[in-house]
Design brief:
Elements: E1 2-7, H1 14-27, E2 32-36, H2 43-47, E3 56-59, E4 62-66, H3 69-90, H4 95-101, H5 107-121, E5 127-131, H6 135-154, H7 156-174, H8 181-201, E6 206-212, H9 216-231, E7 236-244, H10 252-271, E8 277-281, H11 290-301, E9 316-320, E10 324-330, E11 339-344, E12 347-352, E13 355-360, H12 363-366, E14 369-376, E15 379-385, H13 390-394, E16 400-402
Parallel strand pairs: 1-5, 1-6, 2-4, 2-5, 6-7, 7-8
Antiparallel strand pairs: 3-4, 9-10, 10-15, 11-12, 11-16, 12-13, 14-15
Helix pairs in contact: 1-11, 3-5, 3-8, 5-6, 5-8, 6-8, 6-9
């Protein structure tokens, strides 16, 4: 099964491009689902059809689904939210305010990914195309499974044991209800499901495509997206430059736009060297409906296979050397002074701008010492070597390095 996610700055036309790619896949004979995790659903508008929270057929082999994030939130968070509401009730918080306080910002978009997991496990589809939320929300959404995994491995087991032991005492002393096993079970279940989503989306059959318009501000965000997606282990397999003005028969006003866009497109080619850059010209009318969307995608991919699997080894790999090993983490477009690296026991803490990844080292690397690191040719390279002795290996757990 092939999974393709489309993301980009709001308003660049990612929903249209995602819908067109899905229409092309269905026309080629693949059972295709195009799914929106964006709270501002527009897939139905693109197809000119009424669609809802369940897959709706809009053409042969083509189905559309706009995830009901609120419903998924209620299903996955109800147990935890119920406990939090009981605590706030004891504290005398107004019920309406309490309802708002127990909703985690951005949780609905994150939990919408759980629907993707269910559809992938259903074995009903050959291709799933995902129309993601705008870039910032997408990155928060894709980073959560790994961040939650750290908490679940390091903090949650201890917290669960302590709460179980102290529940009778604290309940009587403070009058505040303590969480029961079902609450912890709900959190563990959510963690496991999000972990499956991360595995699915970082696997060899999944990739992300960045949609942009030829504008400097949009290009800057697209570059940051490429870096951040790679940091968290997701493959970017192409960039769509959308709404490009055609150069033919341009009047003076459009000729100015053509020149400005050409300058940005030259930077796009340089910024995303090695990746396919697909261009979609500004059309005379808005593409609405399966036929128009398929026509747009046909012109966009210009004979290339829109479902081609991503090539290469992915953003993360390890190579062996005579001294030990080198960890490679793709960080395209990043300068040395923008990367902060720390070692904490069996983890590397990699910080790029406002994004941080806790990278658990494979067992073969965890026993080695960090011998050095550099940012070179668009990737972070961390060198590991055999420790001089066991004491040195044990002492290699701490340290910080700015590259």
């Amino acid at each position: 099964m092939r999974i393709i996610l489309f993301t980009g700055k709001g308003g660049v036309g990612k929903s249209t491009v995602a819908a067109g790619t899905a229409a092309l896949a269905a026309a080629a004979g693949h059972r295709t689902l195009v799914l929106s995790t964006d709270a501002a659903h527009s897939l139905g508008d693109a197809f000119g059809a009424r669609v809802g929270p369940e897959p709706t057929q809009v053409a042969e082999r083509l189905f559309v689904q706009q995830v009901d994030a609120q419903l998924r939130f209620e299903q996955s968070w109800a147990e935890v939210q119920g406990y939090l509401l009981s605590v706030l009730d004891v504290a005398g918080v107004d019920p309406v305010a309490a309802e708002e306080l127990t909703v985690i910002p951005g949780a609905e978009e994150v939990l919408a990914l759980l629907e993707l997991r269910l559809q992938a496990l259903s074995d009903e589809w050959d291709v799933i195309v995902v129309d993601c939320a705008p870039t910032a929300e997408t990155l928060r959404l894709l980073a959560l499974p790994e961040a939650l995994g750290w908490y679940m491995q390091r903090v949650f087991p201890t917290q669960q044991r302590v709460m179980k032991a102290l529940r009778p005492v604290l309940s009587r002393a403070a009058g505040v209800p303590m969480p029961r096993g079902t609450v912890f079970d709900a959190v563990e279940r959510l963690h496991a499901e999000l972990g499956e989503v991360h595995t699915l989306l970082s696997g060899p059959s999944a990739s992300v495509r960045i949609v942009m318009t030829p504008e400097q501000v949009v290009l800057a965000e697209a570059r940051r997206s490429h870096t951040s997606l790679s940091l968290f282990g997701y493959r970017v397999d192409g960039v769509v430059a959308n709404r490009v003005f055609p150069a033919e028969d341009a009047d003076d006003w459009r000729a100015g736009w053509v020149m400005a866009q050409d300058a940005v497109l030259a930077e796009v080619e340089e910024s995303f060297a090695g990746l396919p850059i697909w261009r979609s010209e500004y059309r005379a009318t808005e593409p609405v409906g399966v036929a128009d969307l398929a026509a747009l995608a046909t012109d966009l991919y210009a004979g290339a296979d829109p479902l081609a699997a991503p090539t290469g080894t992915g953003p993360f790999r390890v190579t062996r050397t005579t001294e030990g090993a080198v960890l490679h983490l793709a960080l395209p477009g990043v300068r040395r002074d923008e990367v902060d690296l720390a070692r904490h026991h069996d983890e590397l803490v990699v910080t790029v701008g406002s994004y941080r990844r806790l990278l658990t080292l494979p067992a073969g690397l965890a026993r080695l010492q960090v011998a050095g690191a550099r940012v070179e040719e668009g990737e972070l390279r961390v060198r590991f070597r055999e420790p001089a002795d066991h004491g040195a290996a044990a002492g290699a757990g701490q340290g910080r390095r700015r590259e």
